[in-house]
User: What shape does this take?
Amino acid sequence: MITAFVMYIALGAFAGVLAGLLGIGGGLVIVPMLTFMFTAQGLPDAYILHLALGTSLATILFTSISSLRAHNQHGAVKWPVFWRIAPGIIFGTFLGSWIAAQLSTDFLKGFFACFLFYVGIRMLRGSKPKPSRQLPGTLGIFGAGSGIGVFSSLVGIGGGTLSVPFLVWCNVTMHKAIGTAAAIGFPIAVAGSLGYLVNGLGTEVLPWYCLGFIHIPALLGIILASVLTAPVGARLAHKLPVARLKKIFAVLLLFVGLRMLWTLF
Assistant: This one.
């Protein structure tokens, strides 16, 4: 258990640096790495990815608060947009966690691997959405929020990969889109964590130190380290060639995606 906890701390440190350095959600790193760790530890195969997704969203509860505060201090959070999209986000995230609980680990692995390919290819190409319209009406923004929430819950991320392009597409400036996406990550983490917790309760094959589909030792190890190392990554971002690092990270995502697909066969 001590060796495993040290590994969770190391994972949290790595995820924190990458989050600060590249501006990516920790879930992109945490979910696949926890999947490999939980497999090596002999946790029940049927629930390995459920545990990785639930634990990832629980870590975002803590990391999103510091990110949100930092962006809000710079006036980069569009609160009217946040309050309009939040109901859909919460509904979609709860729905996504329920859907995930009904799906097999193999299906979730394939789904997450495809998501890694999507993000990796976009990073390699340097794709940026072109703004073309304004935010939709009440029903439209509820639908968009629900879609972001469902997908974020299924892949264990804070939603920035989807909410930033959506907001930019709706003519929100990139600076404010990133800040608002940081705020959106908090209700995703709250709803997703509760959803995975509730849907995992009563699963008798899980170890005693799991709260629903949240692995408590992994959660503690990751947040202890990531909170400390994210500022380090942010400082490095001003000193290192981030564009080149993003391409290297994109290749890593593609490799991890292939590795996850390989485990299916």
User: Anything to note?
Assistant: The chain has one domain: 2-264. DSSP finds ten helices and two strands in the chain.
